[in-house]
Amino acid sequence: MILGLGLALACAVATSVAFLLKHRGAVLAPPVRVRHPLHSAVGLFRSRWFAIGWVVAIGAWLLHVGALALAPLSIVQAVLSGGLVFLAVFAERFFGFRLGRRQWAGVIVTALGLAIIGLTSGSADDGETRRYALAALIAIECGVFVVATAIAASSTHRRIPLGAQGLLLGAAAGALFGVSDIAIKYLADAVQDGALVELISPWTGAALAASVVAFYASARGLQLGPGVEVIALTSVAANLTAIVGGILVFRDPIGTGALEITGRMLAFCLVVAGAALIPAPVRATNVSPGGSGGREKVSNP
Q: In whole angstroms, how large is the CA radius of gyration of the chain?
């Protein structure tokens, strides 16, 4: 358990850095086009900062897989929620962003709420046989995938401002990342139980499909919306989706008493309130409007 939490903490740091690097590269790359996925991917990876960020993200993903294999899903997501604070610190110290008091309050309140939700979920006893709710797994994987993909597709409507499009794409990408996390947790537990055959299953396909769609949605969201806000909403959506998956799919306890359950409900309210505070004017000191497709150009240091 302790090793799993350490891996989750390292993942939170690496994920924040990876997102900020990818944002710096995405705004310099050609606009992501749904009709030209391969061309869009090539354009993104030709951007040096995006490529570096993607490599860091791969490292973060490996840390995440290790954490999921050693600790309950909801507990891992609670630790990862601290990544919002790392994101804010790194954005100001190293990437030229300036966050106001409102944004800092939103980040801290959201991270606190997510941490409470995860930590109060509890976990099954070490000696207890792992149980899965297959119906819930299918419902969440399919339902969230369809809804998130629909949101990503609808965000391109011309009547929606570019900044709002970026926020919608970020939230959709986060939900899809959460779908991938749930599938990976299922596969990691299956491998630990000796069911290697599960690696060749619909859940592997679900994790890959969700990751691919999230990749493009996230990149386009970073091109269109304010970087810190888009990344924060992506993280919130991913954490909430995974935490709900931990409760419904992996039977993580909701609470052991009225006080604990009430605390979790209040924590959900904190997440909603904090997420509402985050979207506000957040500007980078080295960003100037311009570029095609609503992009912002950032000068490389």
A: 19
pTM, full prediction? 0.78
Is there a contact between 297 and 120 (Cβ–Cβ < 8 Å)? no
Largest CA distance in the chain: 58
pLDDT in tens, 257-291: 677 777 777 877 777 677 777 765 444 434 433 33
Residue ranges of alpha helices (H) inside the chain are 2-26, 37-45, 48-70, 73-80, 83-94, 101-119, 134-154, 162-192, 202-224, 227-248, 258-277
The amino acid occupying position 233 is L
Alpha-carbon gap, residue 88 to 113, rounded angstroms: 16
Structure tokens at 237: 């959506």
* Beta-bridge partner residues of 289: 296
Nearest 5°: the CA angle 92, 93, 95 is 70
| Measured distance CA(301)–CA(285) in Å, rounded | 12
Rounded Cα distance between 165 and 151, Å, is 10
Which letter does DSSP use for residue 211 in this model? H
Contact call for residues 10 and 52 (beta carbons, < 8 A): no
pLDDT at position 213: 92
